[in-house]
Amino acid sequence: MTSTNDLTGQTPVQWRAWAKGLGLPEFRGDQCFSALWSGGANTFTEVKGLPKDLAARLDTAARLVPGKEVRRQESRDGTVKSLLEMADGKLVECVSIPTSDRHTICVSSQVGCAVGCTFCASGKNGVERDLTPGEIAFQVLFHHRRRPVTNVVFMGSGEPLFNYDNVLAAIRLLAEPKGLGMGRRRFTVSTSGVPKRIRQLGVDEPQVTLAFSIHAADDETRSRIVPLNRRWPLQEVLEAMREYSDLVNRRMTFEYVLLGDDNMSEAHAKSLADVARRFHAHINLIPFNPVFETPHRRPNWDQVETFAKWVDQLGGHVTVRGQRGADIDAACGQLKRRTELDPPSMAEGDGIVANDSPPTRQA
Ligand code: SAH
Ligand code: SF4
After folding, report:
1. Contact, 327 vs 76, CB < 8 A?
2. Which ligand is nearest to the CA of 283?
3. To 10 degrees, what angle do helices 266-279 and 301-313 make?
4. Which is nearest to 84 in space by CA: 75, 96, 95, 71?
5. Ligand 2 centroid to 7 CA: how many Å?
6. Catalytic residue among 93, 135, 159, 255
7. Is 326 touching ligand 1 by the criterion CB < 6 Å?
8. Which runs of E-coded beta strand occur in the chain?
9. How close is the Cα of 250 to the center of ligand 1, in Å?
């Protein structure tokens, strides 16, 4: 009965074609699209205006949404981490980060990650599969239903540029005027550095923001902590970033996770500031969030301040990123591929709310 496995990922045009393919009037496709994106429907039975028998047949043959929330954790600071179970049982985490004027969703682009950075939980077991456009967009829609989403960052698990087509399709779907209508500038794609795709993004979607996870500005250190650097060394990625930023005419962002004693010497600060100055890049320093099975140490506040001061004095534009949701392992890099419910967390015990409780987002 269904012509695709990823109905959630369909554009309005595809929904109409889908209806037609089933011998239905095209407006049935429009009804499904708007019930999904603005009517809060999770099943065809919940689509207003669909004949009951048709809705029942559709529900047995296909899924309107790709997954369901199986666990929710709420942080003291209002951050909510949801664990979504997809149709094949894969678990995907997404995080809602509310502030007074923004609602940012941190989404995953893959189950696991092939890159395997030494400090990151997401890549510990490699990549299992790409997420579909619908599975990516649904992470946003899911949280949007509680409060309108203003920004989306691809900083959950996965390397978005290794799932380029689906990430782009999800962004375009979320920008769909008949759906959430989000502006392209509301999206930030974070990458560990895939030169070909960086160039392509500048051509395909120049308004989307790109952040480069640099983490060290010398190849020796970077190859140690970001294995992808052995395949595409810094110079190659930076050349692609240069082309990208010339094309989009915007400042680039470097993300730099601060790893205790590994990448925080004065020499590291100097090479970072040098590169950042050359590229007019803004640097986000992210103190390492502890995750299991990593060899790294979280720096203390003095070390963070000293490193930021060094970079600043050498002419780098730098900010230290505030940590949100750390008490529920929802901070950067703490999203992990899981095939079973969590092992004991570094901060377990706080803010866990059963998934059948009503949402209780803190103000
Ligand atoms: N794969 C992409 C996007 C997901 S990771 C990338 O690497 O850019 C998003 C950000 O979280 C990256 O900057 C990443 O380096 C950072 N991160 C990963 N693990 C972290 C940890 N344990 N502590 C702090 N930041 C971390
Ligand atoms: Fe993958 Fe990004 Fe984690 Fe590296 S930091 S393992 S690229 S998700």
Report:
1. yes
2. 1
3. 50
4. 71
5. 28
6. 93
7. no
8. 67-74, 80-86, 91-98, 103-106, 110-112, 127-130, 151-154, 187-191, 209-213, 253-258, 282-287, 317-320, 352-353
9. 22
Q: Which two tokens stand for residue 30?
A: 């429009």
CA of 148 to the centre of ligand 1 (A): 25
Q: Which residue has the higher pLDDT, 341 or 295?
A: 295
123 Cβ inside 6 Å of ligand 2: yes
CATH dotted code for 4-61: 1.10.150.530
Cα 90 to chain centroid distance, Å, stands at 16
Q: What is the pTM of this model?
A: 0.90
- Tell me if residue 332 is catalytic: yes
Ligand 2 centre distance from Cα of residue 292 (Å): 15
Give the integer Cα–Cα distance in Å for 139 and 67. Answer: 9
Q: Which segments of the chain belong to CATH 3.20.20.70?
A: 67-328
Q: Which of 32, 94, 117, 332 is catalytic?
A: 332
Q: Which ligand is the nearest neighbour of the Cα of 124?
A: 2
Cβ–Cβ under 8 Å, residues 241 and 252: yes
The ranges of the chain annotated as CATH 1.10.150.530 are 4-61
Q: What is the pLDDT of residues 204-222, one digit of tens each?
A: 999 999 999 999 999 999 9
The answer on pLDDT for 328 being more than 80 is no
Among 188, 255, 323, name the best residue to mutate to test ligand 1's pocket (greatest count of ligand atoms within 8 A of Cβ).
255
Beta partners for 284? Answer: 255, 319
Q: Which fold has domain 67-328?
A: TIM Barrel (3.20.20)
- Sequence-distant (6+) residues with CB within 8 A of 315 are 273, 277
List the one residue out of 58, 82, 69, 68 whose CA is nearest residue 7.
58
